[in-house]
Amino acid sequence: MRRLLERLGARRRDERGATFVLTAVCMVVLLWGGAMGVDLGFTVDAGRQAQAMADTGALDMARSINIADAQSSLSASNTYLTGKLANVDTDNASNMMLTFQDGHWANGAFTAASQDCWNFFPRLDPPCNAVKVTATQTAPQLFAGGRSSVSRSAVAELTPEGDFSIGSYLANMNVQQAGVLNDLLGTLGADVNLTAVGYEGLANTYVSLNQLIQASGSLLTTSDVMTTNLTASQWLTIVTDAVANQANSLSCGGSPTPSPCAASTALSTVDFSSSSSAQLCQLFSIDGSGCSSVPPSNAALSTSVSVLQLLTTEAEIANGTNAIDVTSALGITGVTSANLELQVVQIPQIGFGPVGTTATTAQVEATLQLSLLGVGQISIPLTAAQGTSTLSGVTCTSSNAFQFANLGTTTTTATAPVTLAGVQIATLTLTGVSNKSETFTAANVPPTASTSSSNANPQQAGSTSPVLTYSGLSSTSPAYTFLTSTLAGVLGPVLQAAGVSVGGADVAFLGANCGAVSLVQ
Prior knowledge:
Elements: H1 2-62, H2 65-69, H3 74-91, E1 97-106, E2 109-112, E3 130-140, E4 147-158, E5 161-167, H4 175-185, H5 196-203, E6 206-208, H6 209-215, E7 230-231, H7 232-248, H8 259-267, E8 277-278, E9 285-286, E10 304-306, H9 307-319, E11 323-325, H10 327-330, E12 335-346, E13 349-353, E14 358-360, E15 363-372, E16 376-383, E17 387-396, E18 402-411, E19 414-420, E20 423-430, E21 436-441, H11 449-453, E22 459-461, E23 468-471, H12 480-486, H13 488-497, E24 505-513, E25 517-519
Parallel strand pairs: 9-13
Antiparallel strand pairs: 1-2, 1-3, 3-4, 4-25, 5-13, 5-24, 6-10, 7-8, 11-12, 12-15, 14-17, 15-16, 16-19, 17-18, 18-21, 19-20, 20-23, 22-24
Helix pairs in contact: 1-3, 4-13, 5-8, 6-7, 7-8
């Protein structure tokens, strides 16, 4: 019995010893793992700091790449950018080691510069448009001992932005257009009687979101400017004040009269009494934006819209599907009544962004119904020919001043059946234009009365007098003469006044942001 007890005691001592050893090993492993975790945490944190510094440095330096391009040699370019890098380090109170490479970003890849980042002739390669910055941060290794280095890189590209619009309003309004527009704006409860000169001023005056906010008092803010719901009278007051602010800084006695001056005079005679209300996001869209709760970016707040387009879109939406009596506005001999029905298919699109940004014309479906004495009712339903303008280039000087921009515009061909007393008698075709290229120089931006009258800005893509082509129309039809001669000079002005693109479009370039940069890698 005694021996048995001694053996059991020995086994217990052995087990306690093994347990002690196992516990000690586990403690060592845990302490080692904890130490590694702490060191790894320092490394991860250092990596985040390095990435943030690389991002900041690349964005700051990319704004200066045009100036670096203009230096007399590669050495001078590097010296200039080295100074900018030192400023980045100082401004951000960083103790990291920063290095840079200037180069060219294209097709999703960065190519470091060799001899292409200074202004010599002939230039062998495209100029630099991007900067790659590498930031190195040290991290303490408390348990391993010493310090480790962590490096992160970022590439930022200089991406100049443009602000432009595409619409269907002619720079020079005629009497018939003015009459149609008076009837159209009259749907907002106003007795409107503006002249063609007044409408020309409205068509060529642009207000930005920032200007509307400033003119609204406290009604609009930068976060809700697109979504605040206001009555037609409130919007008219804000727009009128915004335009008046522009006119106050101009010499309205000049010749030609500056567009904001003519527009301010025209707006001062209008008074909307309609109870209808609207949000700006229901009247135009910036790069496809909708009525979401996401506010416009600071850059987008400089986006501008034509005053005439803003007011007529509001009137068309408020009018719904009701017919507008334009008999007296057209004044066509033999027409006893003329009604225009409008339906907004797509609100005006404003383009704001880098090369590749597009904007599309307002799409409006219109039906013009004319009662001809001794003939009957002719109905001409038209689906707007869609037009798209694409920003194909923005060129800035070495000091980041805007130089010129290029836009390419295409409009589609529209066809519609023409009926007499409910029976189709012809198909009407309006032919569009294909990739019409337009260049806007700094001297003509933003649009003014002078740039408008000279067709420098806005520019017309397509003919200002659209050609109407009929197929299937019999020369023996009682409406033949009316459609081919009388109506030819009327339909274009009517549709353009209503915001319908008729084979062409007005494209306006409103401004550029040459200092815009973006992280690309």
